[in-house]
Amino acid sequence: MNCLIVDDNKMARMAMKQLVSQVSGLTLVGECDNAMEAYNKVNKEQIDLLLLDIEMPGMTGLELTKNMGSKSPLIIFTTAKADYAVEAFELNVVDYIIKPVAPARFLQAIEKAKEVVDSTRQDLKVEEKEFVFIRDNGILKRIDINDILYLEAMGDYVKVHTAQKFHVVHSTLKAIGEKLPLTKFMRVHRSYIVALNKIDFIEEGVINIGKNSIPVADAYRGSLNQQLNLL
After folding, report:
1. Which end of the chain is more exposed for a tag (fewer CB within 10 A), N or C?
2. Torsions phi, psi for 105 (to 5 deg)
3. Residue 229 above 70 pLDDT?
């Protein structure tokens, strides 16, 4: 995942570079000390993630996020103040970290970003599959893709919910999600994947499928809105 550090404070950029260097799979492609420079860089290079400060001279991090629109990479805000958290999450950013950034907190934010990337990648080769087989109590059972309502992570197991019943599979949510058609299913939370065509309505950040309520994590709201083809 290519990332760009945007912060007007040199010491803050140095601290962030040190954190980035310790995470495998994370590649630093540059650093900027103002939002306009970052905007231009995003439009020229392949950048997957912005580690973005909010209070900067000229254009703020919030203003930059609003101006990037559909071209926006994933964004993790890094700021010394908690005041902007509500406004930030309304922009569907991945996370909001208060400085000084602790390594454990940084890793938590990066894991959220990785989950979003995994859930939206376009290189799956199983789009045309109409069914899957699951191992349930030692028996291989066929389940039609169109019968699946949602999947729920339960520790080392996943519950595959259909209208009639649920099946328990010894696996991870990520592993099962990779075998489902990307156009029909989407991860909306650390613990849930939903069938998009089974959603009845969404209210106050909660998806309703029949009598089931599934929470939508802030990090997935932007991608979900795109997939729903909102009018």
Report:
1. C
2. -70, -35
3. no
What's residue 127's pLDDT? 45
Query: Where does the pLDDT of residue 64 fall: very low under 50, low under 70, confident under 90, or very high at 90 and above?
Result: very high
Pick the closest to residue 92 from 228, 229, 231, 225 (CA basis).
Answer: 225
Q: Determine the structural domain holding residue 13 and report its residue range.
A: 2-120
Query: Do 105 and 25 sit in the same domain of this protein?
Result: yes
Among 120, 152, 181, the domain-final residue is: 120
- My answer on whether 184 and 212 are in the same domain is yes
**For 61, phi and psi rounded to 5 degrees?**
-65, -35
How is residue 13 written in tokens? 């950029």
Q: What is the C-alpha separation between 118 and 120, in angstroms, rounded?
A: 6
DSSP run (H or E) holding 17: helix 10-21
Nearest one of 120, 110, 47 to 78, comparing CA atoms: 110
> What pLDDT, in 10s, does the model give residues 170-195?
889 988 888 888 888 999 999 999 99
pTM of the model: 0.56
Q: Which residues contact 194 (CB under 8 A, 6 or more apart)?
A: 149, 150, 151, 185, 186, 188, 207, 209, 214
Residues 6+ apart with CB under 8 A from 186: 119, 193, 194, 196, 220, 223, 224, 227
In a domain, 114, yes or no: yes
Amino acid 49 reads: L
